[in-house]
Amino acid sequence: MQMPIELLILARAQDGLVTRGQVLAAGVTVDAVRHALGRGERWQRVVTGIYATFTGALHERHLVRAALLHAGPDAMVTGSVACRAYGLRYVPSATRPTILVPEHVHRAPIAIAKIRRTRHLPCRAIFARSRVCRRRAPLLTLVLASTICVRSGQCSVRLFSVALPFRLNS
């Protein structure tokens, strides 16, 4: 199957993953998708409606990206996966990433991630008007992940000792 150029660009920006809606919007037919997913072909289904446009192993970043694509545009990663993404080294390992979605969003459960609905997404609730969300996101993720970690009882002292060098007033 020859993929349209806009779909190739989109797949590259999304770690090689595309949604069924994106594929169909790019003009690819349902039969072509079925063929690409067939035995010995180039694509693989990650979860329902999310496809990897390559064969081979899926890494953590692919699973996190697939979970975010499944959860929708307002979703965000939290917990230990988010802490590792920001470079923290001493973080408890998670079996599945935790994805936060707004309370009004209803998504089917998926095996690759825990989807939690919340009334208050940290970035939106605190910084919606000031537009400094992107600069504060690492701190917010750290605070939120630390809180979840403490509540679950899995946190080690190392997480907090790594967090201390961050400038909290930036």
Could you characterize the architecture of this molecule?
- The protein has 170 residues and is an alpha+beta fold.
- The chain has 2 domains: 48 residues, no CATH class; 104 residues, no CATH class.
- It is built from 8 helices and 6 strands.
- The strands form 2 sheets. A 3-stranded antiparallel β-sheet has the order 1-3-2. A 3-stranded mixed β-sheet has the order 4-5-6.
- A hairpin with a 2-residue loop joins strand 2 and strand 3.
- The protein is globular.
- The termini are far apart.
- The relative contact order is 0.11.
- The C terminus is likely disordered.
- The percent of residues in helical segments reads 40-55%
Major sheet strand order: 1-3-2
| C-alpha geometry | globular
Summing up helix and strand content along with how strands pair, one would put the structural category as alpha+beta
Biggest sheet record: 3 strands, antiparallel
Distance between the termini: 49 Å
Number of helices: 8
The count of domains is 2
How many strand elements? 6
**Average pLDDT for all residues:** 75
- What is the strand content? 5-15%
SSE order, one letter for each helix or strand: HEHHEEHEHEEHHH
Radius of gyration: 18 Å
Low-confidence runs: 124-170
